[in-house]
Amino acid sequence: MHLASQKPFQIPSEREDAPRCQKRLGEGTYGEVFAATYQNREMAVKRLKQINQFGLHQTQYTELIVAQSLSINQHHNNIVNTEFIYVQNQLVHLAMEFCDCMLIKIFEQRLTKLERKAVYKQTLEGLQYLHHNNFLHCDLKPQNIMVRFMPTGDHQYTTYIKIGDFGMGEFINQRSSGSIFTPHKDFKWTAGYRPPEIICGYTDLCLKSDVWSLGVTFLELQSGKNIFASLTAERYEELYKQKFSALINALNNDEEIESSFEFMDMFDYDADEREFLQAMLEFDVRKRLNCDELLEHPFLHEDFGSVYEKVGQGMRGELTKLKESQFAAEEQEWHD
Ligand SMILES: Nc1ncnc2c1ncn2[C@@H]1O[C@H](COP(=O)(O)OP(=O)(O)O)[C@@H](O)[C@H]1O
Ligand SMILES: [Mg+2]
């Protein structure tokens, strides 16, 4: 299979007609994100910070490779796409499509079961696209999944769920199960979303590790609870001693393991949704379903019809008002 990462990345030249950055939306160690306008369109710009004089940090380089190979040269509706990369004042910038809100926001107004299915399906389609390109995300969590309401004319919108923030990820070589760039690093995966095989130190990277993090994310979106954060320290310790050490032995020796992991009773779901989420949260990575299998699962066999024209859009009015008041305040500041 063609590996997107094999194309070298070329830093583009300085750009005259760059997007105009306005309000800062977020800041991390390696970059800042701004709302911006470009040719009368709303965009989001990620400005990569200059970490040291030696050039880009691994995570910044990964973001650029993903942008170049998975959204500039190709494209998928369920990831946050970069339109172009440019340099301004010697800093590298990614000009991305603008997302309206985080996925968490649309779960604030209780979703129906059919709407949740629509969210699961779209998110899994985004992840399937990354996985078909052998890209393991390594940092799926509620904060890294966004929503875009795309106008379709006549005051209608279609809701798109979008996976973003690719810096922690890796292109993996499935044949040798190894990583192309770097050996596995501890700083990958945010603690509460780290899958059992990573916690117990298994070193063969597997795309299905992302499926666990996404399962944890779906539970949290609906319940407000993260599985691991909800466990007491003693219970976590007990898990660590018993289950994780048994898991690493079984994985390394290619043995069967009794792998039940009882936490679904902390959550309130119908039997079919519970079974679907449980399949994402299978403790033994070898038995966990992958994105292709989950998308084929009977739980997602639905006629979604007009669901995508509605899901989460109760939020849209509130967001528009918020934006208008922000623009008014900024304009006032400008005049003062
Ligand atoms: N395309 C986008 N549209 C709107 N907001 C964005 C976009 N990309 C990022 N953001 C905002 O910026 C924050 C940080 O971006 P992210 O890519 O997650 O970087 P990091 O977490 O590594 O700093 C996000 O949580 C979100 O609030
Ligand atoms: Mg992030």
TrEMBL record:
Residues given in the record as ATP binding sites: K46
Similarity-based family: Belongs to the protein kinase superfamily.
Protein name: Kinase
Gene Ontology terms for molecular function: kinase activity
Protein kinase domain boundaries: 19-300
InterPro entries: Kinase-like_dom_sf, Prot_kinase_dom, Protein_kinase_ATP_BS, Ser/Thr_kinase_AS
Pfam families found in the cross-reference section: Pkinase (PF00069)
UniProt entry keywords in alphabetical sequence: ATP-binding, Kinase, Nucleotide-binding, Serine/threonine-protein kinase, Transferase
